[in-house]
Amino acid sequence: MPPRKRRVRKKIKSSRHVILILLLVMAGLFFLYRESGKEKAPSEIVKPFKAEKTIPPSVPELPPPVRLPKVAIVMDDLGHSKNKVMTLFAMKQPFTFSVLPLQRYSSWTAEEAHRRGYDVILHIPMEASIKMKLGEGGLYLNMSNSEIIEILETNINSLPFIKGASSHMGSAFTRDKRAMGTVVSALKDHDLFFLDSVTIADTVGYSMAKASGIEALRRDVFLDNTDDIKEIAHQWKRLVTIAKKEGFAIALAHPRKNTFDFLRNTLGNNNEVAVVPISKLLAERQ
Fold first, then answer.
1. What domains, with CATH codes, occur in the chain?
2. Do the beta carbons of residue 216 and residue 252 sit within 8 Å?
């Protein structure tokens, strides 16, 4: 074969090789393009996340808590003995401490009771219908208004942290409008409430205190008018009955062994009434 024809054939062969290589390269590029497109475009549309509405947990409806009737137990005649006060502290009950003025441990009782979170009130000695010794700070009907105020101011200033005052004895004094009007006026000046011990049926203490605009209370039961356990138990039942009927009640008690024993046993198993400080009972009443 002539040399020229051979060269032409070689050129055609090499051209075919080049075209084949180009086709393979183009096919590879097309394949790569299609695969990269698959990665960029998801096969399905993903919706944006939307939180479901919060549904509160299903809680069974509970009955409202039982509200027990409230009782305030006012422990009278304190101030003579530290031991009796310590006995009251040991019971861990919210008694109200009613303290006689100007006795040996009066100031200590008021300070220590307040420090431990108890309510403290002044127990004002007042003249009784029969002759009885009142002790320091006593108020008598033969005193002038200025004398009553002077002694009462001394009594009030002798006891720290008091929230109110109550009558001690006073079966003659608390039925006298002049005398009680003077006392109520002085208590109002000191922003103190008045608890009428009701040692006589026709006392005017409570009504005059209310009329003057100061907060006033009256006792419902003498828990231990006699130092007999059976009688104390009977009076306690009366107290509970009144509290259940009215929603609250006030008992006066004295620092005696039988009274302590009864309260210790009864309050340890009590589920009929809630014993509260007198200030809480007064606040809820108002």
1. 70-285 (3.20.20.370)
2. no
